[in-house]
Design goal:
Largest sheet of chain A: none
Distance between the termini of chain A: 22 Å
Strand content of chain B: 15-25%
Structural class of chain B: alpha+beta
Number of strands of chain B: 22
Largest sheet of chain B: 8 strands, mixed
Radius of gyration of chain A: 24 Å
Radius of gyration of chain B: 26 Å
Distance between the termini of chain B: 56 Å
Oligomer: heterodimer
Structural class of chain A: mainly alpha
Helix content of chain A: over 70%
Number of strands of chain A: 0
Shape of chain A: globular
Chain lengths: 333, 544
Amino acid sequence: MYFKSTLPLLHIQGGGDEVLKFLMNRLGQSVVLLLIVTIITFFLINLAPGGPASTMRMDASPEERQAMIEKLGLDQPIIVRYFDWITNAVQGDLGTSFTSSEPVIKRIAERLPYTIELTVFTILISVFLGILFGVLSAVKRGKAQDHVINFLSVIGLSLPAFWLGLMLILLFSITLGWLPSSGVGPRGADFDLMGWISHLILPVLILTTTVLPNIVRFTRSSMLEVISQNYIRTARAKGAKESVVLYVHALRNALIPIITIIGMLIPRLLSGAVITEAIFGWTGIGTLIIEAARGRDYPLVMGVTVVITVVVVVSNLLVDLLYSRVDPRVKNV
Amino acid sequence: MMRNNRWLFLCTVLISLVLLAACSYGNEETTTTSADSDRNSESGPKKGGKVTIPIIADPTFNPWHPNAYAESNVINRVIFSGLTQPGKDLLPMPDLATKWETSEDELEWTFHLRDDVLWHDGEKFTAEDVAYTFNEIVLNEKLGANNTSNFRLLKEVQVVDEYTVKFLLEKPVAALPAYLSLNTEIIPKHIFEGKDPWELTSFNKEQPVGTGSFKLKSYTSGQNVVLERNEDFYGDTALLDEVEYKVLADANTHVAQLLSGELSIFALEDLSAIDRIENAENVGIYARETPRFFWIIANQEEEKYQDVRVRQAILHSIDRQNIIDTVLKGYGTIADAGIAPALKEYYTDDVTRYDFDPERAKELLAEAGWKDTDGDGIVDKDGKPFTIDFKIGIQGDLEAISQMVQQYLKTAGFDVKLNAMEWNAMVQDVVVNRNYEVSLNWWRYPSDPDLSAYFHSESVKGFNIPAYKNPELDKLLDAGGQTSDVAERQKIYIEAQKLMAEELPYIFLWYPQEAQVRVDKLKGVPELAFGDALNYIHEWYIEE
């Protein structure tokens, strides 16, 4: 049940020195992970048939193609190219995008905030509603509320995000005209609060359906297990009010594994964001990496991969740290 | 209980926020339209208003940049100008150049330029800009600039005086003015001189400077490009205030936004959406001719396709009209040779026809030695069945069309294996490596009948992808490409079309028509394909 605690790292008992050791260990692991991910990605994208879009035009003459290939350094062997890339990357230079001749970092920095916007709202809403419905479901176990919530969860898990997204656009944007069909809405000088919200509603809704059912079901089972514990029976026997029993004693303990689940859902959220962003023309790094892969923009693909991997690693680290604060039986720090 | 009330309150707040947002979004549309209709009390072109056009990716504001594709062309055509532009009959007419003439031997073309043109940053446009564009960008092979293959016979561009340039050619190129009218815009020397033209992102990705009827107002990556009217334009000042290009990667979104009023005009790619658009109010569909033709190519390096009777049999087996009616929803006319009806001056339909005639196909195959000797439904010769390795790239309607073609060919006795590849991968396989037997695709070419690049034996390494070599056709194409005498060229190209129809260097399928969709309130758009109509964007206007 508390699977995190099977990892040897987490049994280190507290102390400042131990904090450092833990973080160093983690850093080492993360670096190795990053390296492996970059190697796999680099070879995969370079071995894909075809090449950078500018070299793969129907109307480019062979001379134009050759000139482009030389300019982009693609006439070098793949291992040499990987070494060039990695030596630059560790110094912070993620290279220049093939498709726009701008620094990769600039392109990512332009788009990353939009993805963060989407995922933060999704996490907030999913956690809030997930815990709410999960608790409700556990408390009313076997009753109507439980069945309804369970039914909706299964539907949410089963419906493919792209289909649901297109259906909602058809309903709310085309038929009813209530919500915009795509885009992030006016920003900068023209920013308008209501416009912003109206553009956020559908993408956040779709992205929520990819993670909310999991949180609900997990909360429910976690809650059920906790409620059946002895100390809950004791609290009730001591005459505590039911709401105190639920929210002070039970939920707090049930929350612990839920924190883990949220950490594990972050990669799922990021990959779901790719699909959601594509449907809604949401200009985040999801659409960026799709464009980059299609156009075989190798530096951009590598750059986005690195950023996403770092995000996943860091968020898992934060979840682990939070977990150890919350559960006194587990001491990382 | 207290707790329940708190949840209830929170939920109510959330839901009302959502509803408010939805309502305000709906209202936005109505308020703008009522303001506009107050202004228009008289009829006729009025100044003002905005046009919104979809593009599928971020553009590059440099017509010569190797990354400038279709989404860049529709913008660069508006903010930059070329020496010539396509007239409303598609023949080249003056733009930055007022008139031009050739020397006796047609190896020198003199272009006289306008003296009243200002760049968007206020500098004067001169012959130096033209010379720079061609000498430093187009003719610099190392740069690999776009669209330069049309100029491989250009030696250099000389500055005669401030407003006159000379194009020096190695051999006569009658199509030169036509080549100069498509995606051949001039870029400013005073900004690019001494810099790497592909790395200058301050221009290419941020603030381009052109001479066109609109100039850049703002650009947000992944979102939109907004142009505003250039009040100092050398031609008629534009009527529209602004042009917005919205970046929408998904073609389905284009149709959705057209119907909800967020887009004004574009060329429809997905013809299955035609019914939905026909039923909508405020939106119209217009069929437009384009100089494009769809073709099948059979690799002439493969022996079995070298017999013209085999190529003719393939064409007789395919019911092209049916494919046009079903997949293209009728937007196309059958093609028999590679010069499209849009080129009215040179097109002729007095050529060999290939009706849908499976019997005739069988006869031709038999004559070429292919018969179904073992009764398995596949024709064979010397014990070997006729297999076709049919490779296409997935884009637009190509897959749907190819599947129908495959069915027709199978009925005719060919064993067809259809390999629908990712576009990028297809280009590498078919176009770059010539690793294919049969493929299906289309070409678009500038409004000149000179198709040497696609049919001449010297272009085998270039765009003559089927590697077709016919000295007779070469002679005709050479003659037609080197004289600018229109009557002379008409005779030559009629003969060329007859020969092409007989020999089928490309197996001609059809000339597609563009399905142009446009909101009714947008007026002044000439009856040209969308890409060509953009040259007249200064004439477009909004009438509510």
